[in-house]
């Protein structure tokens, strides 16, 4: 069967289709029901099924004779360390650390927050939680204490797992001060904190609260996997929403495992034993799915890379890793290649390495711009595949399915829907739009296995955020169109979420921070185009009347506030004072118009605008302050 036949079968007979796919896993009890509709109005996959995700990722492979195969390669140019773990060794570490967590009282259903960098112990921590049926929530290291505190209060973890520090290119980031501040700020009190002491930095532990990871693990015996329901949560991953409160995306065990397993062969065309590398971070969904769970469930060798595409030590580092470990598939964000291209546009460093093992390059996190696509294709000479997905989906929704039938690549397009995803372009009334007409990208329910079944402890917000815009559909928050050949083009977020270097951030959250400054009356944060990072945030603030303040000092203070509250990952580096902000007569700030102006795009001012002259003021401000393309 070709792509089209299988795709149609997946939509017309979802139960039959997903039953077949589930058979590829080693369940303890095969599900009684494939897809059920529940009382809360939501649907669930694989009710009655019993499994353990950590078992599928480790024990199963050892039982099947893969014990001596390398499961994990750790490559850390920032610490000059390289390590390899076989499936058997990784299982031993995970089982022992699960034993340590068990000794701390962690059991099925308990939440555990993981605030750790890209080191093997982070993978061990995730799989150890999964082994016990505990629900992990990994928090990205670039987030500040306040963000960690928000997540502690929402997830209410029993234990927090940490490392002594993170390492960015050439600076050490001590984690304990961040953790101490977060624990101090949060109302929920955790029972214990377990700290992994890295060789590069020794942290001062808090007596009575903190445990040393090594001591705890050495004293523990190996824990056996716990049987969980397919519908039990495996993890919560917080992501930016359109308010200051991030959304706790829940991932179940059963649907997730089925999606992970199948996506490896369908989407990425990899087989057990292949070396697969997702150059992302375990703090993001890409890291959860394609550094940890999918490659291990599929029996591949996964690469855990603690470095950057450039400066660690140079822009040839990605090519070096491919050569050294014979990577078959590399998956990263386009911004990483824009950074490499800037430093090595002629590909001189690329030529130093043998990258013949590489069969595909997959990109996601943001749309792949044509310049990057063309440069990469000419240089690497393998298919460069843009694919579209979100934290909510957990795996690709649009892609060119390399493992089924690699189709023609259209630059700028994320290609076609993955099996199970009925993706449609809708107008504001929920009607399907004809080809080449831009609208909202929505998915007809039910969402396939692996996608979020709910938000953590917030069914109302789940329904309101995703299911209420178009009845019978999940609304992705993205805009786009489909062409006459069925290829989808994602044009960007329709809401106030921005994408900075492949990182999803909420402008509303940044606005909350700016608004808390004593001199600020009102503000707007807009994501404007950036050559390297795709988008960067810029703040526009209106001062309270009578306030006199040096604008440069204010800008520095606001930048520091965003860094302290949200974290360096926000890349918030510009804030300018405006006399007024453009608004509609009903008082809504026209952020999109400001973005268009900064990006030098043409637009029709809406008839609802309160006062047209404010647009001239903003245009002038952008030029004077050298903000965005309009100033060039
Ligand atoms: N812990 C602590 N700080 C972190 C961090 C972490 N895990 N990750 C990033 N930061 C900090 C950086 O040090 C930087 O701080 P600074 O303002 O003091 O310099 C800031 O957050 C912004 O980091 P980053 O977005 O990484 O920008 P950069 O300028 O350092 O590097 C790129 C630019 C393009 C090289 C980098 O963003 C990159 O490699 N992107 C790939 C994106 C990716 O993997 N996305 C995942 C989705 S697939
Ligand atoms: P995240 O939840 O952090 O993975 O971010 C998801 C968002 O990133 C999507 O809603 C899109 O706006 C954007 N995105 C991810 N992949 C792509 C892609 N291939 N093309 C266009 N936008 C993308």
Q: How would you portray this structure in words?
A:
Helix 3 (53-63) crosses helix 4 (87-103). The protein has 20 helices and 31 strands. 32% of the residues lie in helices and 24% in strands. The protein has 2 domains: 3-307 and 387-480, Rossmann fold; 501-631, GMP Synthetase, Chain A, domain 3, CATH 3.30.300. Strand 30 (534-543), helix 18 (551-565) and strand 31 (574-577) form a beta-alpha-beta unit.
Task: Quickly describe the structure.
The protein is an alpha/beta fold and 632 residues long. It contains 20 helices and 31 strands.
General shape: globular
Largest sheet: 7 strands, mixed
Total helical elements = 20
State the separation between the terminal residues, measured CA to CA: 53 Å
Q: What molecules are bound to this protein?
A: coenzyme A, adenosine monophosphate
Number of domains: 2
Q: Kindly provide the radius of gyration, computed on alpha-carbon positions and rounded to a whole number of angstroms.
A: 24 Å
| SSE-based structural type | alpha/beta
Total beta strand runs = 31
Strand order of the largest sheet: 5-4-17-16-18-19-20
Low-confidence stretches: none
- Percent of residues in helices: 25-40%
CATH H-level superfamily title of the largest domain: ANL, N-terminal domain
CATH level 1 class label of the largest domain: Alpha Beta
Question: How large a portion of the residues is in β-strands, by DSSP E?
Answer: 15-25%
């Amino acid at each position: 069967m070709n792509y089209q036949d299988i795709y149609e079968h997946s939509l017309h007979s979802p139960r039959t289709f997903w039953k077949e796919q589930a058979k590829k896993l080693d369940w303890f009890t095969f599900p009684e029901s494939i897809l059920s509709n529940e009382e809360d109005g939501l649907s669930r996959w694989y009710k009655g099924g019993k499994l353990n995700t950590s078992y599928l990722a480790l024990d199963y492979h050892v039982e099947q004779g893969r014990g001596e195969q390398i499961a994990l390669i750790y490559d850390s140019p920032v610490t000059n360390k390289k390590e390899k773990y076989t499936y058997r060794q990784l299982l031993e570490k995970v089982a022992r650390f699960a034993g340590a967590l068990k000794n701390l009282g962690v059991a099925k259903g308990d939440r555990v927050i993981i605030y750790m960098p890209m080191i093997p112990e982070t993978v061990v921590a995730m799989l150890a939680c999964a082994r016990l049926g505990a629900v992990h929530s990994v928090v990205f290291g670039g987030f500040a204490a306040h963000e960690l505190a928000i997540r502690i209060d929402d997830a209410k973890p029993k234990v927090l797992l940490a490392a002594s520090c993170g390492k960015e290119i050439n600076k050490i980031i001590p984690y304990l001060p961040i953790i101490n501040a977060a624990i101090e700020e949060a109302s929920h009190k955790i029972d214990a904190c377990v700290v992994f002491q890295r060789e590069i930095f020794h942290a001062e532990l808090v007596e009575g609260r903190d445990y040393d990871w090594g001591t705890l693990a050495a004293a523990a015996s190996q824990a056996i996997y716990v049987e969980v329901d397919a519908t039990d949560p495996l993890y919560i991953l917080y992501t930016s929403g359109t308010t200051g409160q991030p959304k706790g995306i829940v991932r179940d065990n059963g649907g997730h495992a089925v999606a992970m397993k199948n996506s490896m062969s369908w989407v990425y065309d990899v087989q057990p034993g292949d070396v697969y590398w997702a150059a992302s971070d375990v703090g993001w969904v890409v890291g959860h799915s394609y550094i940890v769970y999918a490659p291990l469930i599929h029996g591949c060798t996964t690469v855990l890379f603690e470095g950057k595409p450039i400066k660690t030590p140079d822009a040839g580092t990605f090519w070096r890793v491919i050569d050294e470990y014979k990577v078959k598939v590399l998956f990263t964000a386009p911004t990483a290649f824009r950074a490499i291209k800037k430093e090595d546009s002629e590909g001189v460093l690329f030529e130093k390495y043998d990258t013949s093992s590489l069969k595909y390059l997959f990109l996601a996190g943001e749309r792949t711009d044509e310049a990057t696509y063309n440069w990469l294709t000419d240089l690497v000479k393998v298919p460069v595949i843009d694919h579209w997905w979100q934290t909510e989906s957990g795996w690709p929704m649009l892609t060119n399915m390399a493992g089924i039938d690699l189709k023609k690549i259209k630059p700028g397009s994320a290609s076609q829907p993955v099996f199970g995803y009925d993706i449609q372009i809708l107008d504001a009334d929920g009607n399907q739009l004809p080809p080449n007409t831009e609208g909202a990208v929505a998915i007809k329910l039910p969402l396939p296995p692996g996608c979020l079944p709910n938000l953590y402890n917030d069914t109302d917000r789940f329904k309101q955020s995703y299911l209420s815009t178009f009845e019978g559909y999940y609304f992705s928050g993205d805009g786009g169109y489909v062409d006459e050949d069925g290829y989808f083009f994602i044009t960007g977020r329709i809401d106030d979420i921005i994408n900075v270097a492949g990182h999803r951030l909420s402008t509303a959250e940044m606005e909350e921070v700016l608004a808390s400054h004593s001199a600020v009356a009102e503000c707007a944060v807009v994501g404007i185009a950036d050559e390297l990072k795709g988008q960067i945030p810029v703040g526009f603030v209106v001062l309270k009347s009578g306030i006199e303040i040096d604008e440069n000092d204010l800008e520095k203070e606001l930048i520091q506030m965003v860094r302290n509250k949200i974290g360096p990952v926000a890349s918030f580096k510009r804030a300018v004072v405006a006399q007024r902000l453009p608004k509609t007569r009903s008082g809504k700030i026209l952020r999109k118009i400001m973005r268009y102006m900064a990006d030098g795009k043409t637009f029709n001012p809406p008839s609802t605008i309160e006062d047209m002259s404010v647009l001239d003021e903003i245009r002038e401000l952008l030029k004077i302050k050298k903000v965005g393309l309009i100033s060039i």
